[in-house]
Write a structure and sequence with these properties.
Layout: H1 3-19, E1 32-38, E2 43-52, E3 55-64, H2 67-80, H3 85-99, H4 124-148
Helix pairs in contact: 1-2, 2-4, 3-4
Family: Belongs to the NifU family.
GO molecular function, one term: iron-sulfur cluster binding
Pfam family, one: NifU_N
Length: about 150
């Protein structure tokens, strides 16, 4: 597939997650709530996580922002559901490396739709948009891990 066709496909995936976000909403009950924003562009997210037995049982988000930040949140919630906390954090590390243009080990991880955000690494001002939801997840699961230790 040519790079132009790949870019078009990736843009379509990003816009699909933006227009039809997965896991949009708020979890109730004993869920963990993390609020974060990006003051430089106005993106904001409220991420709610249900963590059970060291796993991400469910994840939802609410927020406002550009197509990159909201589609990234949609993709991230899909990717981490059902994963144990260590796997979710590893996925976040791989995503961060991808955003920074670093080499990352993709052999044992299926990034799925997340790969569509790979081109964001070429636009440094947009990296914070793409990583906002991931930083919220890291903050939430790290806080939970510390409380359990």
């Amino acid at each position: 597939m040519s790079s132009k066709n790949l870019d078009t496909l990736y843009r379509q995936v990003i816009m699909d997650h933006y227009k039809n976000p997965r896991n949009k909403g708020v979890l109730e009950d004993d869920s963990l709530t993390i609020n974060m924003n990006n003051p430089t562009c106005g993106d904001r997210i409220q991420l709610t996580l249900k963590l059970e037995d060291g796993k991400v049982a469910d994840a939802k988000f609410e927020g406002e922002g550009c197509s990159i930040s909201m589609s990234s949140a949609s993709m991230m919630t899909q990717a981490i559901k059902g994963k144990n906390i260590e796997e979710a954090l590893k996925l976040s590390k791989v995503f961060s490396d991808m955003m920074l243009g670093k080499e990352y080990d993709e052999d044992d991880l299926d990034l799925g739709d997340i790969e569509a955000l790979q081109g964001v690494s070429q636009f440094p001002a947009r990296i914070k948009c793409a990583t906002l939801a991931w930083k919220a997840m890291e903050k939430g699961v790290s806080t939970e891990k510390e409380e359990q230790e």
